[in-house]
Amino acid sequence: MMKKTFWDRWGTPLILLIGFALSMALPASGLINPYIELVLKYIGINIILTISLNLVNGYMGEFSVGHAGFMAIGAYVSSILTVWVFPAAWEGVLFPLALLAGGIAAGLAGLGIAFPSFKTRGDYLAIVTLAFNMIIKSVLENLEVLGGPRGFMGMSKLTTLWWVYLVVVLVVYLARNFVYSSFGRGVLSIREDETAASLVSVNTRQVKVLTFVFSAFLAGLAGGLFAHELQFINPRSFTILKSTDMLVMVYLGGIGSLGGSILGATVFTVVMEGLRSVLQLLNISQEWRLVVAPLMLILLMLFRPKGIMGLREFRFLIPLQERSEAIQKAREAARTQRRIGEVQS
Amino acid sequence: MEFYIQQVLNALQVGSVYALIALGYTMVYGILTMINFAHGDIFMVSTYLAFFFSTFFLAVFSNASPLLVFVSTLLVAMFGTALLAVLIERVAYKPLRTAPRISAVITALGVGLFLENFMVAFKPVGPAPRFLPPLIPQINYTFGGVTVSSIQIVIIVVSALVMFLLDTIVRRTMVGMAMRAISWDKFTAPLMGIPVDRVISLTFALGASIAAVGGTLYGMAYTIDPYMGIRIGWWAFISAVVGGIGNIRGAMLGGFILGFVEIFTPVFLPSTYRDFVAFSLLLLLLIFRPTGILGRPVAQKV
């Protein structure tokens, strides 16, 4: 066991606290304009979505293309709560409750998707999740109570930058603990070889159900934040296009890496928003912006399927005891390398 | 009674288009075990090829006979679409043949979205819906209360012919035998002297040109727009899965089943529930019989 230094113990919390203070101070002080604030919020929401999809596609090695459906459930459920159920005076205080409820509702839907995954894998599961996404969209379009195809509105702008920040930090923390728990090892073992995993007594069904539910829960949270930022949602916001955006972010950052998810979501959001101004400058129609995301996905798959991080992880996202073990292992490996070198010379 | 016969005819018309597109999905899956999610959008591009060529052709030869216009439009659309599909296969799918299977599926999703958004952003096409110029004169025949239009007859007859032709190609020719050999065992097939790459490209070309037949026929009956590939493509894909993906006759059967679902859903439910019914059907089928109606289950090897 390595000795903990002051920075090992207090570094991350300190930085997080400073980040939180900034997320409250910056919009209030007027140092950043509302557009940049909006982009920052989108980055946060996209980070949550990317981590959510990465848990299923990256860590578990299953293939979901229907996460926009979970997001839609979270968005609608939380909006219904804040608009119809909560008293207007209290909605600011009860907002986290609405987010949580949206997440839980999405999680329940995730339970429904987890069961087909017992029998089917790979591309068939992709079809199941896609069908799920389409069904959710179709149901929302047919529910006249919720505005049908016209959408649902009336939410107040409850998604502040510091709320997004808090939820992102919480989600990264939860996801890190999830991935590095013994349960998370089970998730990884399913990705490597499901049959072998079940032979070494990983309860693959339980692992799959919990991962899907957790992942859907996160997507639901993101949906709630998204709805209270835009203050208007309609079923067309949650189609396969949205799911594809999530796929691009996951594969851009790198599968099986939380740091990759954060980077992927950030880079993707900044590039897409940056393109808006670039196209305006060059006087090209904004429709070309939509061509870029799928093109990025194709090029990534062809030339760098590993993404930016490629299974590596930021140091601060690895739990402390793991970190020292990893360092120990690296030292041992280096020692062995040296010995081999001595023998050969 | 007449109402139902009329609806059955409409279902056959829609179903044949779905069946033609479903064939492309199922052939590619059969040979590469890959879902070509871009196929619906390749179909969409084919209707635009038909649109531009027929407009051009009618403008240059204004007094050409309808049959000549129809056949030449069909052939040009088929050729152009086949070229596009082979290009996509060579550029986007072939480098990924040894990569994990899911990479190719993701790429296919990307290619599909790229085609859609490109067509929207591309000025000569744009997002507005369009009509194909009338390729054959519309005549309505009425038999005891049931109306059949000439377009309906052309759609059903041409589709049936193409399906029969494809079935013959796959079952009775050397190329078809090569395709079946590759789908049977793609590691042994090259050892028997089968040019795998060429046969795979040919499969893509064949699937795309059949989709182009569907596209031209579809454009004669309905409006076209760059996003139509999503809905039609998905319905055709469900057809392929319902019939048993990888199975050519299954795809034809599935296409007609989906045609009936589309036409008969509005009889019982509001028509906005069409997608809901089709995707629920898909979901139920995948949960209880993932290999479709005519497909055989495959045991997982460890």
List the helices and strands and how they pair.
The complex is a heterodimer of chains A (345) and B (302).
Chain A: H1 6-29, H2 34-59, H3 67-85, H4 91-114, H5 116-119, H6 122-142, E1 152-153, H7 161-180, H8 182-192, H9 194-199, H10 204-230, E2 232-233, H11 240-253, H12 258-282, H13 289-303, H14 320-344
Antiparallel strand pairs in A: 1-2
Helix pairs in contact in A: 1-7, 2-7, 2-10, 2-11, 2-12, 3-4, 3-6, 3-10, 4-10, 7-8, 8-10, 11-12, 11-13
Chain B: H1 2-32, H2 39-60, H3 66-93, H4 101-121, E1 140-143, E2 146-149, H5 150-172, H6 174-184, H7 196-221, H8 228-243, H9 248-268, H10 274-288
Antiparallel strand pairs in B: 1-2
How does this structure look, described?
The complex is a heterodimer of chains A (345) and B (302). In chain A, helix 3 (67-85) crosses helix 10 (204-230). The relative contact order of chain A is 0.15. Chain A contains 14 helices and two strands, in the order H-H-H-H-H-H-E-H-H-H-H-E-H-H-H-H. With 345 residues, chain A is mostly helical. The mean pLDDT of chain A is 86. Chain A folds into two domains: 11-239, no CATH class; 320-345. Chain B has a domain at 19-228. Chain B contains ten helices and two strands. Chain B has helices at 2-32, 39-60, 66-93, 101-121, 150-172, 174-184, 196-221, 228-243, 248-268, 274-288, and strands at residues 140-143, 146-149. In chain B, strand 1 (140-143) and strand 2 form a beta hairpin. The A-B interface holds A 63, 65, 115-116, 119-120, 122-124, 126-128, 131-132, 134-135, 137-139, 141-142, 195, 240-241, 244, 247, 251, 285, 287-288, 290-291, 293-295, 297-298, 301-302, 305 and B 34-35, 92, 95-96, 99, 101-107, 109-114, 117-118, 120-121, 123, 127, 230, 234, 237, 241, 270, 272-273, 275-276, 279-280, 282-283, 286-287, 290, 300, 302.
Instruction: Please tally the helical runs of chain B, counting DSSP H or I stretches of 4 or more residues.
Output: 10
The global form of chain B is globular
Q: Report mean pLDDT of chain B, rounded to a whole number.
A: 88
Shape designation of chain A: globular
Average pLDDT across residues of chain A?
A: 86
Strand order of the largest sheet of chain B: 1-2
Helix content of chain B: over 70%
Structural class by SSE content of chain B? mainly alpha
SSE string of chain A: HHHHHHEHHHHEHHHH
